[in-house]
Amino acid sequence: MTLTLAIFCHNFEHRFCWMLSSLLQQLPSNVDLTVDAAFVLGTGNPTCLDVLDFFAEQGLKIRYTQFEKDESAIYKKRGFVRNRQLFQCQEDWIWFGDCDMCVRGDFLQTFEKIVGELSDEDSRRMLTCTRYSTMKPPGPTDELVATYTYPCVVEDAYERAWALPHRKKSNIGAGYCQIANVANVRENHGGQYVNPNRNPDNDFDNFWKTRSDRCFRGMLGRKRVDLPPLIHLQHVRDNEVGYHIEIQR
Fold this sequence. Notes:
5-stranded mixed sheet
């Protein structure tokens, strides 16, 4: 079984190292994982390219989806990024996720078991799971993330993140975990994450727009499955401060 984790990362390289570390720390399974990471060249500290090269050397299978700086207007509208990642996906399943999550060690093992038991109807739905978020900075989350020099492998990444104060989030099927059967999307839904001519991300010019996520789960329907919960390394958001934050997180 093959699975692509489709991510985009902009100034979240520190947290992304935590996620990639947790993927290195997965228990053995028959899931062949590829990380498709979308990024703007020359951005981040360290750059996303440096982070990806580092983790490729550690053994992760990486697909580089590069955007030039003059493509930033496209890149900030997530539906267009995910359309590109879906188009180039060569795997059986695609997991659209966020780069500030940590993944429990038995995630891929459990995913393999769940997929093997899905009915035909459920295999055409978008699969999603529960997440917990650490408490908002300033506080333990940023203090822990700042402990490391990046890029690096964070030992026991999931367990260290889970040990922080955290709470369960109520939104189900949001953009952090949207897993779809690639053949179904191509055969029955035009092979697109969102119709580019009706992408609601187009309605906004400021900040990062992710309303296309709702279109995707509305198109497929959704099924919550018993995957191990993800842990989100919480952070301050653009809409909370009223401007686009360009600091490293």
